[in-house]
Amino acid sequence: MEAANVITKSLANLGGGAIKDGGGGMQKGLEILCKTNFNSGFKTGATRTLGIVAVVVGGFLIGKSLIEEHINNKRNERFEEYHNLLFIENVTSIQEISKTTQKSSEIVKKEIQKLIDKGFLLNAKIDTQSDKIIIE
Q1: Which of 10, 98, 112, 129 could form a disulfide with 105 if both were Cys (CB 3.0 to 4.6 A apart)?
Q2: Long-range contacts of 22-26 (CB under 8 A, 24+ apart)
Q3: Which domains are seen in the chain, by residue range?
């Protein structure tokens, strides 16, 4: 149904394309919801509005949780990448980390500083004079 397609596409856009509904369960559920006659035994406008609000709020919450999960996954991937370089391979030079990760040294500094600020890299700091990560 057209309304279900529009809602599904909107939800997929909220999740940054992260929504994977291979079984079509979400699409089918939305089609049933859109086909449901909310007017049977109820006042027309209020129930339909309530149904639409429920779908919109539910879609927003699903999208928000998927976005947060995506952000957390990216942060964990960054942490693992930098952690392996710093603690396993003992690479502390910003320039070497930059070459290995294929990111600019400014981005490497910014991402490592975020990880330090969030408590992911305890006892670490960036020495701007030597352009190295110092592990205490």
Answers
A1: 98
A2: none
A3: 2-67 (no CATH), 70-135 (1.10.10)
Other C-beta atoms lying within 10 Å of the C-beta of residue 7: 22
Query: What does the block give as tokens for 84?
Result: 């392996």
* Residue 70 amino acid letter: H
* 135 sits in which H/E element: strand 132-135
Element of type H or E holding 127 = strand 124-127
CB atoms within 10 A of CB 47: 16
- For the question of whether the overall pTM of this predicted structure is more than 0.90, the answer is no
